Amino acid sequence: MPDPNGPAGESDPPRDAMPAAAPHPPADSASAEEITRAPPSAAIVPRVLIVDDDPRNLFALEEILREPGIEIVQARSGQDALREVLRQDFAVILLDVQMPEMDGYEAATLIRSRERSSRTPIIFLTAVNKDDVHVFRGYTAGAVDYVFKPFDPLILRSKVSIFVQLFRKTEQIRRRAEAERFLFEENMRMRAAQLATERELRRTSEQQAMILQSLPVDLFTMAPHDFARPLFITQSGGKRESWLGFPTDRFYEPWFWHQRTHEDDRARVLDSFRTALAEGRGSAEFRFLTGSGEWRWLLCETALRTDERGEPVEIQGMTVDVTDRKELEEQLQHARKLETVGRLTGGIAHDFNNMLAIVIGNLDLLQSNFESDPKAAKRARMALDGALRCADMTRRLLAFSRKETLNARVIELSGLVSSMTDLLRRTLGETIEVTLDVAEGVWPVNLDPTGLETTIANLAVNARDAMPDGGQLAISVENKNFDGVWFGSPAPERIVGEYVAVRVADTGTGIPPDVLARVFEPFFTTKEVGRGTGLGLSTTYGYVKQSNGHIQIESEKDVGTVVTLLLPRAEGVAASLVATPAERDAPPAETLRGRGETVLVVEDDREVRKVVAATLSEFGYQVVEAESGVAALGVLENRIDVQAVFSDVTMPGMSGPQLAEAARGRRPGLRVLLTTGYAGDVELPRGAALLRKPYRRADLATRIRALLDEPEAA
User: Which of 516, 510, 512 has the alpha carbon at shortest distance from 560?
Assistant: First the structure.
């Protein structure tokens, strides 16, 4: 066998190195004497078969490829293409992938199964199947190239021209060889012409070798029962050193590829070779240790070539680097896991908030009964604090699942971040230097300012924990314009548009790669028990995504961590930033008391309904109860003194919003306050208000009182 790394020798090239050509002469072949007298290309008219079920595509392709000396043949289906292939030979076939009845993959397989057309080059045309799986399926079906619609006419014409030229060259050589063999038997004087033909053949082989070297894959062949080393392997881009970091000659060493393959993957690769021997095709993905010491994921596709009797001749293979694809798959899997957790979180929110409403409501009612018993009052306060912490944890989980209700408005981000600097300095302590760099002309953004304040505070606290001996915390705000840049964790996305970037960087200990991959998972924390819930960064992730933004974390050991938030620019003029007010004291109880009004409480959960009724009764309201929307309408028919309805949103049969519309349709002046523990958005009917569960007794009394005190709409 000739050296695959050196120039072609004087002997004939291997069969697989021959350019695509029909192995049998066409029916109208000229005689040897005619071939000798005429130029080799005089009688050669390459045919190009274009196959597409859309006549517009056929017309466009013929217009692009039409030129003198080429015959264009059209086929509207895979069946028509097979009939054309049976009638005549082609220099190249352009085959659409998506066709009814018989798709391109099936048609290509049938074309390849026929000996006469088994080497005819096939170029797949597709507009949708662009991912690696379909591309490799196309190569496995016998394609030599892929062209994606809409295609560049110049590139398509160039690709087809290469195979047309190869066809002409091959046909010339075949005809010359035929004539020379004929004339050699008749007259030894044609020896010189035969040698000239051989030289032409070598030049053609070298041209094809250059084409193979320019492909973004490595091709190889192996003996059918000897997997220790390849018989032949291409040189990537014509270079002596493989893209895997070794001289190409190293791959001819026995079991060199096997030694560099990850030990967990070696058996899988060998099994793929055996599968190719048994079934004709094999495939395996494996890890390979490159010359630089880096593990790379490779995909190896193999196919068995047999002779006319069906006996195995060699295994032909293709190897391509799929490391980037594998990494993206892992990132996508991680992102889907976070989405699944988010959906689960949102699903349990309603029931959990209902239970918290019962606990908090009863504890609120009990507090007034323990004024003479300090110990019991203390215990009630502790229980209430625990329930409120549970409610806060639910809110954080809803933020992660992107189902928390946000009060978004247009704000000036630079003012909000600047107002937090002094607070952060006091919170983080004297050992941490806080710097702020706000660019001029920062664009307005549309988001919930309280959520952003919480996000920045969470990031600052995490940075403080990573700098136990002190350090620097740098916060910067600037405008960014992106045009297709990959950004984000855990799954990068292509970012296009105008954003305001908030960057929080520390000089802490950094985050290890295995931890960095999980930082957004709920309840995942590296802190000791009692120092963290594992909801800080998951809440941040959910808030940013719900605000239509993006987040990315970069970290290096002993250097620090950088968290970048991209918040989309808001259209229009920003309103003046209103400082977040401090938590106000609850209004005096006497201002919340009822004045004898009757409130209809509608709730399918009996325990929740009883707590609400007791609370409103304690505040001086007359309370009527109903366990469903239908029962509530019956109460309204018989009780004209009902002035307000307090109803749950989610109930069997008639929902709260449906009840509100039906009730106000009958009594337009009726006041309606809805409540829900559901995490999603609620579409409120006109004139209705909403109170989220769990709530405090003062919250309920305040909302009912405000609703009754509102002037009636005209």
Answer: 510
